[in-house]
Amino acid sequence: MDRFKSSARLMIVSDLDHTMVDHHDPENLSLLRFDALWEAKYRHDSLLVFSTGRSPTLYKQLRKEKPMLTPDITIMSVGTEITYGNSMVPDDGWVDVLNQKWDRNIVMEETSKFSELTLQSETEQRPHKVSFYVQKDKAQEMMKALSERFEKRGLDVKIIYSGGMDLDILAQGAGKGQALAYLLEKFKAEGKLPNNTLACGDSGNDAELFSIPDVYGVMVSNAQEELLQWHAENAKGNPKIIHATERCAAGIIQAIGHFNLGPNTSPRDVTDFLDSKLENFDPGHEIVEFYLFLERWRRAEVEDSELCLASLKAVCHPSGVFIHPSGVVQPLSDCINALRRSYGDKQGKQFRVWVDQVLPEQIGSDTWLVKFNKWELSGEGRCGCLTTVLLNSKDASVSKGFTWVHVHQTWFDGAGSKDHTTWLF
Ligand code: GLC
Ligand code: MG
């Protein structure tokens, strides 16, 4: 990752289903709390890595369904596919490693002899991963029988059971742990080993993540039996691994605090946002807080006070403008006035606002250009736009924060054709 000249402050390597993403929380509250914390406090100097069992197809589907951030690195198909950045450029070096001693045809041939194995969908069959469903009570016996078969055929593979139903057969060098070890090696060779790494997971295929040396680990409170059992047998006395008392992403935030890895108060846990301004004087935090305010304002979760609007106005540059994604240009202060009408217009409705990839760039002694993706989720679906904000810190002590000089938004592809009458900022 060439985004940094030096080591990342923190690298989080997290599983998605039932770890980062709580499928039992339709409101996605812990995920949104994590998102706000990451964008306000970590995005600029830390690395976010998602490590999922899902194939690229199912991973992209999940991204559409849930308010997930964009990771710096995506590890998919149980550590068999590593990609970098927004355009998900594959790591071909990793493919070469996995090609050694792997013969997919033998795997298919041997597994076809077991009627207890049900092949998963076509999308989940990948070049270095073959996946089945197996009943929980048959799992151990099947794994043993399969290992014996493969050994006889001279094939060295890895068999992993997860979630009490999924059986993955991978190239021996693969797996979430091996993929992480490979990444750490790469960073080390570049002299950019992260200062700290935190692995987060809930099921069997995550166990390997916790056996990589020097890595902190959190098993979220809702971790599966097979992972807890692995822990009891292999890592019980290791103080670098905890079993959180909180579910999913809330457990990740808990671990950040437990291991002292950095700030662990999500802006979503702070209600008095005017007060927190001076303490958190940084451009990323400013952006996260503003959009959180917008969500709360429209959900009628902040006091409908003129004070709020006045303080927002105070941070708008007198000649500041806002370029709405529709192309309409308005003075910033007019936009703030227009907010008055929208107070509570989303009360009692499904409405969330979040920002992704908030990357501030200092372009002058007191000027920052912040680029990010802003998303809104409402009953009608989700839409987003690329946003650029110019912030000035000259009069910070007077206005208690940055002055907003310029805001410019453009719809993401395809979003322009929808009805966006309620899109404000
Ligand atoms: C994901 C994948 C599936 C795999 C499971 C466990 O659900 O889609 O193929 O078996 O993770 O690794
Ligand atoms: Mg999981």
Descriptive report:
It is a single chain. The chain has 425 residues and is an alpha/beta fold. It has three domains: 10-88 and 175-267, HAD superfamily/HAD-like (Rossmann fold, 3-Layer(aba) Sandwich); 101-171, Alpha-Beta Complex (Hypothetical Protein Ta0175, Chain: A, domain 2); 272-417, Roll (Nuclear Transport Factor 2, Chain: A), CATH 3.10.450.50. The protein has 13 helices and 18 strands. The protein has helices spanning 29-42, 56-65, 92-99, 104-111, 139-152, 176-189, 225-234, 248-258, 273-279, 283-298, 306-314, 332-339, 396-399, and strands at residues 10-14, 47-51, 73-76, 81-84, 89-90, 118-119, 129-133, 157-162, 166-171, 196-201, 216-219, 241-243, 316-323, 329-331, 351-364, 367-378, 381-392, 403-411. The strands form three sheets. It has an eight-stranded mixed β-sheet with strand order 5-4-3-2-1-10-11-12, sandwiched between helices. A six-stranded mixed β-sheet has the order 14-13-18-17-16-15. The protein has a four-stranded antiparallel β-sheet with strand order 6-7-9-8, with helices on one face. The two termini are 32 Å apart. The model has no long low-confidence stretch (mean pLDDT 93). The site of alpha-D-glucopyranose has 11 residues, from β9. It catalyses: sucrose 6(F)-phosphate + H2O = sucrose + phosphate. Its cofactor is Mg(2+). Homodimer.
